[in-house]
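Loading example: each entry is read as two labelled lines plus one structure line.
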Amino acid sequence: AQSVTQLGSHVSVSEGALVLLRCNYSSSVPPYLFWYVQYPNQGLQLLLKYTSAATLVKGINDFEAEFKKSETSFHLTKPSAHMSDAAEYFCAVRKGGGNKLTFGTGTQLKVEL
Amino acid sequence: GAVVSQHPSWVICKSGTSVKIECRSLDFQATTMFWYRQFPKQSLMLMATSNEGSKATYEQGVEKDKFLINHASLTLSTLTVTSAHPEDSSFYICSATRDSNYEQYFGPGTRLTVT
């Protein structure tokens, strides 16, 4: 069964610093992996997705993630944090042969001046 | 494109009453819609999957008689919380997929508070 683990429920960075949010997956087959962002009292917005093509995936707002099979990881990075990046981030894996998603527990990103 | 709306965005109801939440795909036909609930500071938990014209498939532990899902058309799915209780208070989020596309498009969510 596919699942994802997000290490660190809270991450704090300074504005302009590197953002690194960790996600590890477990899957018996090549997975489809996603990163979503959620602002308070809002739905989820897709940042980027991995679909067995390029291992380095670029998303919106300068976010990117690298699929590393050897490490079963799909960590999310951004070179320079902005105050507007403060939000909850969820890693997700497509479950089974259908369209179901299994979400990680989320990481709250705080950006400080 | 691929916009999903939910109505209402927030609702307060009294214990014992029923509440209906609508999920609409505004610019595409949704072959499948999903309903999630999210407790404060927690992740999304899938409640059920619905396909147009057929019965919803509920996840283990979700009471299908309490959370009624109707997917009457390719653009509308509804979730009715029957005989709501305070423990049903949560953030309910729907999503939709189109055709065989695996990507889910999420609605903005509905905040339900049961008093």
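The CA atoms of residues 13 and 111 of chain A lie 5 Å apart.
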